[in-house]
Amino acid sequence: MIKNSTIKIIKNLLDRYKNLDYLELEQKLILSVSLMKKCYDNNGKILVCGNGGSASDSEHIVGELMKSFILSRPIKNELKEKILNSFPCDANYLIENLEIPLEAISLVSQTSIQTAFSNDNAPDLTFAQQVLGYGKPGDILIAISTSGNSKNVIFASEIAKIKNLKIIALTGKSGGKLKSIADVLINVPASDTFIIQEYHLPIYHTLCYALENEFFEN
Description:
Blueprint: H1 4-16, H2 23-41, E1 46-49, H3 53-65, H4 77-86, H5 91-97, E2 104-106, H6 111-120, H7 126-134, E3 140-144, H8 151-162, E4 166-171, E5 184-187, H9 193-216
Parallel strand pairs: 1-2, 1-3, 3-4, 4-5
């Protein structure tokens, strides 16, 4: 179960974006947050991939997870003590500025492995290769494809499924091939790429805020 305050964050999205205001989406967002929370409770991580604008969204999601988004995330006393004992000269600066991350990796930003694997093996398997390397059972792959049919995202999702990762897919209306692979399909009610992407942003902002609320609400 997730907090009532987290459910309110999700409902607020649906109040602001009436085209998204349908019960199925609310349930999918609640399930997504529950899966992500379970992932982090078990010391897992989130991997994210997509192409073009969805690649930018992948980077954006990781940026919101790895540092504070809405809520404060002060480091814990145990870590503070270790910093003070190990590096007293820098301790205040480190303690005042560092925040608790929610571990996430954008697969689109790994330039060396992407270019090496594209050149030596198969360009459309670069995300899959990274999932094979980074992914552990219980981790989550957020697979972003407006069509739901991007080959490199599909291949990454297939390897994620084999490695027992949970898959949350962000797509357009049809869901494409990701529909049959994803554990949660968040398919927004649009077919034009730019409109799909316009819907994706407030959705993943809401997921990041809702997840942060689960761990850092006072």
